[in-house]
Here is the input.
Amino acid sequence: MKIVVCGYMVRYPVAGNILAYFQYVLGLHLLGHKVIYLEESGWPYSCYDPVSQQWLDYPRAGLGIVRRLFDDYHLPVPLCYVDRSTGRVEGMSREALEEEIATADLLLNVGGVCWLPEFASCPRLALVDMDPLFTQVGEFGAKLSGSYDVYDTCFSYGANIGQPQCTIPAGGVRWLPAVPPVVPELWENRSECGVRSAECGIVAPLIPHSALRTPHSNAPFTTVAHWNAYGRITHDGEYYGQKSDEFLHLLHLPSLTAQPLELALSGADDAVLDELHAAGWSVRDAETEINRSITTYRDYILRSRGELSAAKHAYVRTRSGWFSDRSVCYLAAGLPVILQETGYSDWLPTGGGLLPFSTAEEALSCIERVNSDYEAHRRAARALAYELFSYRVALPRLLEEAFASGYPASGAEAPQ
Here is the structure.
């Protein structure tokens, strides 16, 4: 099957963001599909240079970073970039790109931040919403991803959309639940065991849990986060915030436990950093230390005891059912995840390897439960990753649902 994947890693080439899209590309390739990666400029000054930390009109840095990543993993995946303002096409001619889109079996618009008129020529289009609520009210992907009517299928990481407990407006669209895929082999310890695949250079899935390196006993629970992302919004008179709103509710958590807690943050100003330090949090600069490369990001996670993280206020308030594309990486590394409840416990098994909380006191209880039987939680975490989020499970299910729906994603004719 030929699949065009559209995403946002060329324009925003920081490791955590790249991985959210790269694991689609790598996973689909490993499943035997022909994959083409396509991105377009979207809006003025949409291209971030992680070295100069400037927003530019052309992704010179991003193209180099993603090309090297594909080369490192020996991926025979064409990388194509279209500059809307100039019409310039990188990676192939415009005519060749039009032919690839028109003859693809599926165009998978991940994140919804790409749109070209040529997309309409593809026989089947699917949208993957990674940012529930913000997409549905037009504050993120929906601005660029075309009318929902053009999609045959719409997926969302907001797994509860359309359910009574979720307050995200569906807008007449049938949103099918989707999970962020993970390639578990990327998160297993290469130095101690495993073999490299001759095909793509990743570690083959031959590592039993007992062979995985155990983090140091003083390793902190960590997370990698952007403090404010692209800002707070008000919709229909209701306020919806970012992670900063929820992390502040956890401010005093370090005073309740001897367990080291660490945040790798982007976008936090000096006043916020001072407040976190004063409360006992260890804070790292995600921009310059963690997100420099896939290697630094991966090593940071592997040196952690597990993840402890808040979720965006909007995800929590709407009981969206969202689950993190970062948390699946911790799980695949065999590291327990303590993540703020967004309603994901409505559909995900919790209690072993994955523990939800709503208050700082509940987070403390989760830390104590994990530490009381750490190895059992590690095994449970890895089992969740393989059984629910592995590309071998998540991506075939996504493709099956994308091709099963013979009706537009939007409209009254969609079955309930």
